[in-house]
Design goal:
Blueprint lengths: L16 E5 L6 E4 L3 E4 L6 E3 L11 E4 L5 E5 L4 E3 L21 E5 L6 E7 L8 E7 L8 E2 L5 E4 L7 E4 L6 E6 L3 E10 L2 E2 L4 E9 L10 E5 L5 E6 L3 E8 L4 E10 L3 E6 L5 E6 L2 E6 L5 H6 L2 E2 L7 E6 L5 E5 L4 E5 L7 H4 L1 E7 L21 E4 L7 E5 L7 E5 L10 E2 L5 E2 L5 E11 L2 E11 L11 E4 L4 E2 L4 H5 L7 E6 L2 H6 L7 E2 L6 E9 L2 E15 L10 E5 L4 E4 L6 E4 L7 E4 L3 E11 L2 E14 L3 E8 L6 E8 L4 E4 L10 E5 L3 E8 L5 E7 L2 E2 L2 E2 L12 E2 L8 E5 L5 E6 L8 E2 L2 E2 L3 E8 L5 E8 L2
Parallel strand pairs: 1-36, 37-42, 43-48, 56-63
Antiparallel strand pairs: 2-3, 3-4, 5-6, 6-7, 8-9, 9-10, 10-11, 10-12, 13-14, 14-15, 15-16, 15-17, 18-19, 19-20, 20-21, 22-23, 23-24, 24-25, 26-27, 27-28, 28-29, 30-31, 31-34, 32-33, 32-35, 35-36, 38-40, 39-41, 41-42, 44-46, 45-47, 47-48, 49-50, 50-52, 51-53, 53-54, 55-57, 58-59, 58-62, 60-61, ...
Amino acid sequence: MELLFKKVVPLIFVLFSSLVCSQNEANIWYFGKYAGLDFNNGSPVILSNSQMNAREGSAVMSDFEGNLLFYTDGITVWNRAHDIMFNGEGLKGGLSSFQSAIIVPNPQDTNIYYIFTIDHETEPNGLQYSEVNMTLDDGLGGVTSAKNIFLHSPTPEMITATKSSTSNEYWIVSHKWDANEFISYNVSAAGVNHTAVISPGGANIGANDHSNAFQGSMKISPDGTKLAIGSVHLALQLFDFDASTGAVSNPITLDSDDIYSGVEFSPNSKVLYSVANSFIYQYNLQAQPTSGIISSKFQLNTDQFMYFGAQLAPDGKIYIANRDSPYLSVIEYPNNLGGIGANFISDHLYLNGAICKEGLPNFVPTFFLDRIRFDPACFGSSTQFSLTNNRAFDTIIWNFDDPASGANNISTDVTPSHVFSAPGTYEVSVNLINGTQTLSLYQTVIIYDTPVAHHAEDLYVCYGQDIDLSIQNTSILNGQSPTATTLTYHLSQIEADNNTNPIGTSFVNTSNPQIIYARLELTGFPYCYDTTSFQVNEVGDFSSLSMADTWYLCEDGSVEIIADDGYDSYLWSTGEISSSIIVDAPGNYTVTVSNNYGDVICNTMKTVTVIASNEATITEIETIDLTNGTNAIIVNVEGNGDYEYSINGFVFQDSNTFTNLSAYDYTVYVRDKRGCGIVSESVYLLGYQKYFTPNGDGYHDTWQIINGFREPINKIFIFNRYGKLLKELSATDIGWDGTFNGTKMLSSDYWFVLERQNGKRYSGHFTLKR
């Protein structure tokens, strides 16, 4: 979003001297893997047009109105069209250099800029610069022949810059490797002065066992009076900086022997922040005496996420790089001391899928001085204003460029708020009067009309089916531009207000009915939004039919398949539309049932299987008899039915085997479970008496095969224990009376052999008792 600033208009009242500021050179950020931010309207808006994949450092330059000019990772330069700039490849910065580049403008020529680059890991390219002329390539800019101009080598991966306190010039500051000397280069209208101001003091970066101290960062405070440097496994040090001479002096070691990756000053230059081994620390630079600064160290976080670079932003906040994350963390109020006052928030800003790496853009910190800060708002809401500078003043006068608001158009409050009378673009100004001097600041503020999320009718959907929520878009937009607005759907009002957990447009209810909350926001301006809600009602809860899955068809018969009743319509795969059908062939049959709910017709279908069945054919009945208590009947059948068996016609079982049976006459029944018939067949089992008592009392007076008469040609032979044949019986005889040739045999065990008519022989023994 381009924000236009008014040209300076002479003040009506008499002022002895005046200064006009409108610094927006740091309003556009590009960093990491295709990540970008736009601060032109106060709060950051996510950009997704970056062509840069920067592992660590980067630098960006915008014009005074906040329009992008170019950006670089220290090796390649991209223009505002996001194409590689003319002659913009092959700069000598390092791909893994933590502060690989910084950009400063020529103090007099608004078309000339200088990209200062730092090689990585003390490689020989060291500190160099290249000139950019914005008149080249039809105004897209290009790197001139003044490219990769050598200044010093080797250096650690640290570079910063600030504006001179006595002129419109700049100082570029870096450090020598394996030395305790800072090097400052002046940038004037004539260009870059190659003679450095050398400032000894502080730790020797690279000495002894500090071979990794090239990693770290360096920053100058926004007011240009302090310089901080953090070197890996070496020290976090604070220095005085003289912005008139470029000299660095008065070192203070705040901490030592840690992994320092980021340092940054608060907007008022009174608080220092360091990122050390992923912990974020705060130091009060106003503490007295000097030891008080050291003891003021305060830890802001406990999570120890992989935090790295830190960078002050135009909105007055300090953003922290979350390595390999789609989020940035933030220190919301860096001028405030203490954890609650500063308010560190991890994973604060989502980058819409772009990835933050280790570094953030490196800017001249004076770009963040003398700025009007405001919390953007939409029409109807109050916009809060404040200043990022720390200048003293006697009188402050705000003009909101909103004459329709009457007396409220002017305010003398330090941090005023204003409700603009209509949507539009306003050139807000503030005059800071201090004695005979006036500082005039300007800021373009765009007040957008809040989109209206219009009412949408409730939806009806068949039970368990997806619904496309986007069918509500037209009603909710009601003629508003679908490209200028962003419409999302949520499951709660809180999520809609916070724009969290949006659901896809293809949705299935998780409750019935379910309220869906729609959020309509102005694209790119999440604070301009409205919400509405509607209800999704599920109807037709017949996700499954209760009718049987399987039906049975008896041979040469038919079966009626009956669907669940109560539906508005039926359609079978046979073409019939009744609730039941009669079929005479096995196979699969499908029914679709439907109910009509006004504009919604819900249906479900079910496929059933018809299986052919018939009565059984008994092929064989196996008998096991003449056993000692283990008589059995085994029934063997043929057929395609599902059969069950019985030997009494009342109690049926799935098994075709009956055991532990007595010698008796039986009728075997085989029944089709599917109702296709029952067949039966008679069978008998033989047995023998275990003893007999031939005493003439009428009980057990003779011995014979039980049920033996069923096999009339059977022969039975009885022997004594010595094998002497005593008696031969036929199956029809009354039995043996216990005598041999008229003589009563003694009580004892006797043996028999049965020769059955089927050719099988059985033997056993029994007892004669007298």
